[in-house]
Amino acid sequence: MSLELNIVTPEGTRYEGQVEALVVPGAEGDFGVLPGHERFLAAVRIGELQIQDGRHALWAAVSDGFAEVNGDKVVLMVDSCEFAGDIDAARAERARARAEREIEQLRAAHAEATNFLIEERALQRALIRIQVASKPQRPM
Question: Quick one: which of 48, 74, 96, 116 could link to 126 by a disulfide (CB 3.0–4.6 Å)?
Fold first, then answer.
């Protein structure tokens, strides 16, 4: 028994296929989905998505969106989805360093909370991308 998984971003479909299970970074905490799961809708936060496709685990860095679970079908609608093999780790490290610098400058300037939120989210995305980039990945 398997699940049909579709991952959609504003740029288009990032993944479409049958999987055994997945762990999604939900806004209220990570949650697992297996075939026959109860129907529900949940918010997705920046984090690691783990996909089990039988013998392999796939890892992706995802950001905000929604997960719709309907029995044996899951649709993830997220702002971004980058699989481990597609992440440029050096670029993610540069993004992390830039976000940390910006946060420190905002702190020193006593900037508005909105600016902190923007840079903290950029830092979260960079850290997740770095973390996911180090995961083993089978070729897509």
Answer: 96
**In angstroms, rounded to a whole number, what is the distance separating the alpha carbons of residues 124 and 27?**
14
Q: How far is CA 87 from CA 47, 93, 123, in A?
A: 14, 11, 15
Res. 54: pLDDT tops 60: yes
Q: Count the neighbouring beta carbons within 10 Å of the beta carbon of residue 110.
A: 6
- Taken in order 44, 33, 72, 132, the sign of the CA dihedral is positive
Q: Is residue 140 part of a domain?
A: no
- Are residues 56 and 122 both part of a single domain? no
Please, what is the average pLDDT of the chain? 88
> Among 127, 129, 44, 133, which Cα is nearest to 33's?
44
What CATH number is associated with residue 65?
Answer: 2.60.15.10
User: What predicted TM-score, i.e. pTM, was given to this entire model?
Assistant: 0.79
Domain that holds residue 24: 3-84
- Mark which of 66, 84, 102 sits at the end of a domain: 84
CB-based contact 27:42 (threshold 8 Å): yes
Is 139 inside a domain boundary? Answer: no
